[in-house]
C-alpha cells in the first residue's frame, strides 16, 4: 500500500480545504501520460468521491482514492513533500 507522510497529508488537506469540499472528499491519485507518450506520470486531483474501481483508504485523516491501474505500481511507495525553491512539492519515493 502507498504510505502518505504527515507533511504530505497536511499539504493535501490544506488544498482540499481551499476548494471548500465536504469532509468526506479526498484526493485521487490517477495515471497521466506524459506528452511524449512513452512515460507514465502520476496526477493528484481533489475529488468528492472515488471512481467506482478506485481503491479507497485513509491515512493521516485524509481519504485517498487510487486508480486501479496504479495500485500495484504504488505498492510500498511513500508520498512525501520536498521543499523546493518555488515552494513545497509532492514527491513519490
Structural class: mainly beta
So what's the CATH class?
A: Mainly Beta
Total strands: the figure is 7
Quick one: overall form? globular
Describe this structure in words.
- The protein is mainly beta and about 90 residues long.
- The model has no long low-confidence stretch (mean pLDDT about 90).
- A hairpin with a 6-residue loop joins strand 2 and strand 3.
- The strands form two sheets. The chain has a four-stranded mixed β-sheet.
- The chain has one helix at about 5-20, and strands at about 5, 25-35, 40-45, 55-60, 60-65, 80-85, 85-90.
- It has a single domain, classed as HesB-like domain (Hypothetical Protein Aq_1857, Chain: A, Sandwich).
- The protein has one helix and seven strands, in the order βαββββββ.
- It starts with a strand and ends with a strand.
- The longest helix has 13 residues, at about 5-20.
Question: In terms of topology, how is this protein built?
Answer:
Elements: E1 3-4, H1 6-18, E2 26-33, E3 40-47, E4 55-59, E5 62-66, E6 78-84, E7 87-92
Summarize the structure.
The protein is mostly beta strands. The protein is built from one helix and seven strands.
Looking at this protein, list some descriptive labels:
93 residues, mainly beta, Hypothetical Protein Aq_1857, Chain: A, 3-stranded mixed β-sheet
